[in-house]
Amino acid sequence: MPLPGGASPVRLVRAVRAILDFLYLAQYPVHTTSTLSLLDDALDRFHNNKQIFVDLGVRTSWKIPKLHFLRHYSYFIRRLGTTDNYNTESTERLHIDLAKDAYAATNAKDEFPQMTLWLERREKLFRHENYVQWCLSGRPPHLVSHAAYQPPADRLKMTLHPSRNTVVFEQVTAEYGALFFVDALARYIVKFCHPAYTPAQVEVASNDVPFLFRSVSVYHKAKMWLGDLNNHRILSDESDVIHATPSREDKRGRSIDGHFDTVMVNDGVGGYSGVAVTIQDIVLHKYV
After folding, report:
1. Exposed, middle or buried by CB within 10 Å (0-12, 13-18, 19+), for 225?
2. Are residues 274 and 181 in the same domain?
3. What is the rounded distance in angstroms from the CA atom of residue 146 to the CA atom of residue 229?
4. Mean pLDDT within 240-267
5. Of 54, 69, 85, which residue is a domain's last?
6. Is the pTM of this model over 0.85?
């Protein structure tokens, strides 16, 4: 394979072969530890030899987000399964409306400001068209989209039985990462028994809470309703699942990573923006 200036084609062949190996391995319907190691090795070989494309003037840099994402393939396959379970159809469809059509309306020079302006005008025309149609139809009152919607009886749903019974406090701290579980539980008990206490009073009283038990029942999964009757924009009949599963070993003694979801929590004083962020370290319920 002759290259300009008599350069050796070895790095070029290695880079092309490595990326092809990666593409074929990434499409496997079943993976093992060995195939995932081969996947990472193929990507490493590509990165070690990709400089040849810059040296030949084919590219000026490799700052490509999709290329960076390849580094996460092995991790996500371990966590979420093989890539035949993934689907990019939704975002590809938006790519046509928000990128291809917008680019076609430009003169291909300094296209990003033109694309942004084109999309902004399209949105304004769409809103104005809806307004004109509303006026021509006699300006009927707006329908409340959630008037007939019945929310679920409980926003939070738990399984009938806990995932683990009698998990001692030390295990909660070590296995679930809930380092301040005992302190938080004490504050919760004080707030529940004395709802009129100030934060300072709760803090003082929590130091004297006697624990007559040393274990709790733990739930590894909870289902939460995502809708809001007070805001039709986020009204939904969908629910999301919160996972709080510690690391464990399967029947063959292989280690399985823990799964702790990050959850956005409105503590009761936040609006639709500016909510507090917390880690859903543990989902528990204690029958007293």
Report:
1. middle
2. yes
3. 7
4. 83
5. 85
6. no
